[in-house]
Amino acid sequence: MAEKIIPMKGGVVAADNESGRTTSMRTAETLFRLLPMGLCVAALIVMLKNSQTNDFGSLSYTNLGAFKYLVHANGICAGYSLLSAVVTAIPRPPTMSRAWTFFLLDQLLTYIILAAGAVSTEVVYLAYKGDTAITWSAACGTFGGFCHKATVSVSITFVVMLCYAALSLISSYRLFSRFDPPTTHSGNKAAEMDVFHT
Hints:
Layout: E1 4-7, E2 13-16, H1 20-48, E3 51-54, E4 57-60, H2 65-89, H3 96-129, H4 144-178, H5 189-197
Antiparallel strand pairs: 1-2, 3-4
Helix pairs in contact: 1-2, 1-4, 2-3, 3-4
């Protein structure tokens, strides 16, 4: 196999010969990136099928903006998980731009899914407990099936968030342990110092 030259931290150049260890790490990361996709799809399907009709009326996830956001966030995360798993599975030498892209997108998706889970948790809590201060009565006594499915979907979403938090740690470790931080070069240090002293 041909050796690939990889620039490493500190200016050191290392040769990567695509050993079994590298292949197994890439396979593990690919599978770990696919895990949230399955969980996102499960949370999405549970919420999409979440509606209940009884003598008091009907209730669907589309009646609540938080649950619509949860569905959209899970759909976006599932798509990103699939795309990132495909990109990870393709053997290529690591580059700084690829590491930064994974780092930023993993961070972004972690916060998107965290926000979806948090806002949906608040709605589920209000559905179970109500809020007497604003005369919002508990709805789960009347729409128990709806509340149960919503709780399941929100719980799965928080498991997805934990997966994305772990992926964020992996991508940040890969970025900051392998590459030096960007440096700025200025030709006139005296001018920079004068700015701070005036």
